[in-house]
Amino acid sequence: ETGVTQSPTHLIKTRGQQVTLRCSSQSGHNTVSWYQQALGQGPQFIFQYYREEENGRGNFPPRFSGLQFPNYSSELNVNALELDDSALYLCASSITSGRSETQYFGPGTRLLVL
Amino acid sequence: LAKTTQPISMDSYEGQEVNITCSHNNIATNDYITWYQQFPSQGPRFIIQGYKTKVTNEVASLFIPADRKSSTLSLPRVSLSDTAVYYCLVLPHNNNDMRFGAGTRLTVKP
Questions:
Q1: Which is it for the CA torsion A106, A110, B2, B3, positive or negative?
Q2: Which of A10, A62, A71, A74 is buried deepest, with most CB atoms within 10 A?
Q3: What is the pLDDT of residues A51-106, one digit of tens each?
């Protein structure tokens, strides 16, 4: 158990819809990162938030957006869903302190786009 | 960012020591080497992290040669529950772009 929780666990949407995924960080962690993991592949970095500001972004289009709240919980929003967005979405929390810190992953939300 | 290369899959038997080597030829001075383990339908789990020489914890050992262009994760006496995908990552100093490769799928047989 990492103390990182995600909701919902599973979700089915149709093309063109919008989705919001939620993540609750481990207590005391000020940084949250989101990843997309397609079947059989490693997680791909979407973006990271530190103290409510975006702190790095991977190669994902603007329709992937996020928020981090004062209590360090976080949301991932995806607009105009495409079939290829079907994947496991993982969030990971950590403490940013000037060096590479361990990231603690949640169990993920499995999204299916039909 | 440093690219990593590791074997796609490995097989082992219970009780054996398993060594998984990762190449990272263009590692930067401030980069750390980190290994994660992932079971199906779960998020990756941190195993070990190191910068140089050798690091050991209750789960594994990490060997890093002086040139830091490769690293080896050593799992002593594996069990069936060690069957998982193992990822080697070279983390930038600010840790804001973790690049996972395809990982190494380890299968432990009875």
A1: positive
A2: A74
A3: 889 988 999 999 999 999 988 899 999 999 999 999 999 999 987 665 557 788 99
